[in-house]
Design a protein that fits this description.
Elements (H helix, E strand, L loop, with lengths): L1 H9 L10 H6 L17 H14 L5 H24 L4 H12 L5 H5 L4 H23 L2 H17 L6 H13 L8 H5 L2 H16 L2 H5 L16 H13 L13 H21 L2 H21 L9 H19 L4 H47 L8 E7 L2 E2 L7 E2 L5 H7 L7 E6 L4 H14 L9 E7 L2 E5 L2 H13 L4 E4 L5 H4 L2
Length: about 500
């Protein structure tokens, strides 16, 4: 049943198109070292891997990349099943953990946006590290410890937030021992020396690659950086609320309503009652420590909600559900609890699949819009004179219908997408996003009126406008005057792009 449901969920994702960040990750700036990317993040193994893949198969066909996402997602689920079993859950409990993670509506970004593939790889590496570390604890074989350390290195190379893995291993050790007595023995900590060494080497690399500027938020356009301790606790609370309410759209603290509070109180009450009745305090400590440790790096250094950031933390939630289901079915009233648990999982799965299907359709629309803009731009500008400028007006930043998830469209990556499809490398691109305000609407209306006037065509400057799902070429001189005037009045509404320009400079 699980395989059938996963197949029905993953197969329709194989033709989803590229959007936004996908392009600057897969179309690297040749002026940068192979370990760096234009997003200025310190993920060398991710950058090398993506550059190698793109150089071999290009970006004209999306299927290989979608297969990579589907395979990585399936691998994460298989490893989660194994880890939950190794931590003591029976088959039913481990399957419950897989169902909870697999059909969580918060997975829409890691499933439908290739740029979030790095989160899947980080999760797979973290799970491998935990499994190999458990092998080492049970067999005392150095080979297993070495494999766990290699998995940690891979996780760090794809996402720096996985630096907290040693803390997760400590929580697993505590869960296995059910006490901290072994923590006071020196041999216990020898197993952590390889991880400490890798973390030290990565820290040196991080600061060597302008790490201080990253921490201060002076790279990646200010999107990432340490913003003070005051926001850490609210950030953790916000993330936990989003995990506890997976069927709501991304919630900030200001979005919390009375019914949200009521549901959270009900969930907390039932959770604590079950933990008390079944004496699952070690499992609760394991899950809570996993959640807190994996959430801290993100809430401390990111300034916005993103569901992809929750995938690795949700592994801890899924493990707890697996251990809880195991305890329920093994209790004196196991048969009764098994029926209730099965019904709860069935309802959760059906609701999760339904919401994921809605999100998938939105991501499909985003990919189709990106493909349309690229295709029409290349058709309308087949040959550009040296030093030409192309102004792309009123393109979509992201799709965010009321009550639905946000899906990226052209929040970035326009320049890379066009140049990867044959756009002249000498052309500069002026980008303007569609916004629901009177100034933008006025600009669009005036440009369309001006385009109907008879006048001489522009030569080295081409102006394109996207309206109503269509891209149109405006080739009269008066449109250039309108664009220049609007850019002078609203400079923040325009971005001048160049092929390979750094992520940070594009957002200044």
């Amino acid at each position: 049943m699980l395989l059938v449901l996963l197949g029905c969920m993953l197969l329709p994702t194989l033709n989803l198109g590229f959007v936004a960040d996908d392009f600057f990750l897969l179309v690297p700036d040749v002026r940068l070292p192979v370990t760096q990317s234009v997003d200025d993040l310190h993920r060398p193994l991710r950058n090398v891997t993506l550059r190698l893949i793109a150089s071999r198969i290009g970006i004209q066909h999306v299927l290989p990349y979608r297969l990579l996402v589907a395979a990585s997602f399936a691998a994460a689920l298989a490893l989660l099943f194994q880890l939950t079993r190794r931590l003591g859950a029976n088959r039913f409990g481990a399957l419950a953990a897989v169902f909870v993670l697999a059909f969580c509506p918060r997975n829409h970004e890691v499933l439908y946006w290739f740029a979030a593939w790095q989160d899947l790889v980080a999760a797979v590496a973290v799970l491998f590290a935990c499994l190999f570390f458990l092998d080492f604890r049970e067999t005392d074989r150095p080979f297993c410890l070495g494999l766990a350390a290699i998995a940690y290195l891979v996780a760090l190379g794809f996402k720096e937030t996985t630096a907290v893995l040693p803390a997760l291993l400590v929580s697993i050790d505590f869960y296995r021992e059910r006490s901290t007595s072994s923590f006071w023995r020196r041999p216990f900590w020898k197993a952590y020396l390889p991880f400490a060494g890798i973390l030290l080497l990565y820290t040196i690399y991080f600061f060597w690659q302008s790490g201080f500027a990253s921490l201060a938020g002076r790279r990646a356009g200010g999107y990432y950086g340490f913003h003070g301790f005051a926001g850490v606790l609210p950030g953790v609370v916000r993330a936990l609320i989003n995990i506890a309410l997976p069927f709501s759209t991304g919630l900030g603290l200001k979005d919390i309503r009375l019914w949200h509070v009521a549901v959270l109180l009900l969930e907390s009450g039932v959770l604590l009652l079950l933990v008390w009745r079944l004496q699952l305090w070690p499992a609760l400590i394991l899950s809570a420590s996993w959640l807190i440790c994996t959430l801290l790096p993100t809430v401390a250094f990111a300034v916005f909600n993103a569901d992809r950031y929750l995938f690795v933390p949700m592994l801890g939630e899924a493990i707890f559900v697996g251990l809880l289901m195991h305890a329920l079915v093994m209790s004196p009233r196991g048969r009764k609890y098994s029926i209730a648990a099965f019904i709860a999982l069935a309802l959760y799965t059906s609701a999760g699949i339904s919401q994921l299907m809605i999100s998938r359709e939105q991501w499909r629309k985003a990919g189709m819009e990106v493909a349309l803009v690229i295709r029409e731009t290349m058709r309308l500008c087949p040959i550009l004179p040296e030093g030409s400028e192309v102004d792309v007006v009123n393109i979509t930043y992201a799709l965010h219908p009321r009550g639905a998830v946000l899906s990226a469209v052209f929040e970035n990556g326009l320049s890379e997408a066009l140049h990867a499809n044959g756009f002249s490398s000498s052309a500069r691109i002026l980008r303007n996003f569609s916004t629901p305000d009177s100034e933008q609407e006025g600009l669009v209306n005036e440009l369309q009126k001006c385009a109907n006037l008879a006048a001489g065509a522009l030569t080295k400057r081409i102006i394109l406008i996207e309206v109503g799902g269509q891209v149109r070429k405006l080739d009269t001189p008066c449109v250039a005057s309108l664009v220049d005037s609007d850019r002078a009045q609203r400079p923040s509404a325009w971005s001048l792009l160049y092929s390979g320009q750094s992520f940070a400079s594009r957002f200044r």
